[in-house]
Amino acid sequence: MKLAKEIGRISRLDRYKRPEKVKGAAKLDSNENFALDSEFIAKIAAEAARGADLREYPLDELGHLYGQLAKYIGISEKYIGVGSGSDQIIELLLATLAGRGSRAIVFVPTFSYFIDRCELNGIRVDEVPLGKDFELDARKFVRRAKKADLVYICSPNNPTGNQLDKKTVQYIIDSLRGKLILVDEAYADFAGYSLAREATRRDNVVVLRTLSKAFGLAGARVGYMVTNRKLAGAFKSTIQSPYPISTLSLTIATRVLERSAQVKKTIEEVKAERKRVFDRLAQVDGIKTYRSDANFLFIETGKRYRAIAKELEKEGIIVRLLGSAAGHSGCMRVAIGTREMNDRFLSCVERAVVA
User: Structurally, how many domains does the chain consist of?
Assistant: First the structure.
């Protein structure tokens, strides 16, 4: 039976495992923005709840969000599409613009969700390894990409944290004009540049963004994309569902964007903390920390891996334990949290290393 065979195929695929929530733990495993004041978000959420009539479908609220997004990124809303997180936008684009039997290309390691969803949709994935320090051989990547239908570029990259050189990404885009190119910029608010404007001038480039990271709205599930006017219009009118985001999430997202000055201030604080944590880790023997343009750091701990992981668990600090990754041993990804959270993490690493 075809249905049974397909269900069997799907059941064998890799699946996302939601982390357990540990009460009282310092949660540095999911790249959430705990540096943004929780009371700031809570007050906006309360205001949104008081003013929302949940008996109605969100009509005006969607338009208000488009207006604030356009203002924030400085691009007309004609080039923008929104979704229930950038994950949902990826899902829709894979299903409608790629489809079963097509081929995608990625560099690895990268955002594993994208690879998993390609496999779910019957899309073959070609993986090009990054270099020793997570640099990309752009010419090699382009040569391999010419056999693909879909190109995925995560920059800043998850889990490595580095943003590709802007000229490198532009070279890839210029060399692959006939391919659909997805540039995942979930962490671009913490980085040096965005290709959003570039996407409006191309007929094959989609830049993916989210409010889950810098804007502290991971629980609201609001993402957006920037692309050319024709594709954005088709996405809003046909590809996307009529009401993809709840009234509450739309209103909260709009009001946080209206107060983006406070978010930008927090972003600068996170970047300063990122440098401080990086510099302190650089003094620890036996581990290597890689340059990051995101709100997290990729750390190679080698033989110190088990000792550090044990110390972190004992102290109630949760990080993303990656183990071996792309030829690197004892790898961890740790988000930049509040100064207090970061200091707790640093103290654990230092204790584990000298023990």
Answer: 2
Q: Cα–Cα–Cα angle for 163, 294, 193, nearest 5°? A: 50
Tens digits of per-residue pLDDT, 198-208?
Answer: 999 999 999 99
The reply to whether 341 falls in a domain is yes
Residue among 72, 58, 52 at smallest CA distance from 244: 58
Q: What is the CATH number of the domain that holds 145?
A: 3.40.640.10
What is the identity of the amino acid at 329? S
Neighbours of 207 (CB within 10 A): 29
**Cβ pair 61, 254 in contact under 8 A:** yes
Q: How far is CA 201 from CA 174, 185, 207, 230, 313, in A?
A: 12, 17, 12, 11, 48
Label residue 131 left, alpha or beta by phi (over 0 means left) and psi (-120 to 50 means alpha): beta
Tokens 């955002």 label which residue? 111
E-strand spans in the chain?
26-28, 80-83, 103-108, 124-129, 150-154, 180-184, 205-210, 223-226, 288-289, 296-300, 317-325, 328-335
What are the φ/ψ torsions at residue 335 (nearest 5 degrees)? -75, 155
Over residues 232-272, the pLDDT tens digits come to 999 999 999 999 999 999 999 999 999 999 999 999 999 99
Q: In the Cβ-directed half-sphere of 82, how many Cα atoms lie within 13 Å?
A: 25
Give residue 108's domain range.
38-258
Q: CA 186, 192, 196 angle in degrees (round to 5)?
A: 55
* Tokens of residue 168, six digits: 């490198």
The amino acid present at 99, given as its one-letter code, is G
For the chain, how many helices (H) and strands (E)?
13, 12
Q: Is the pTM of this model over 0.70?
A: yes
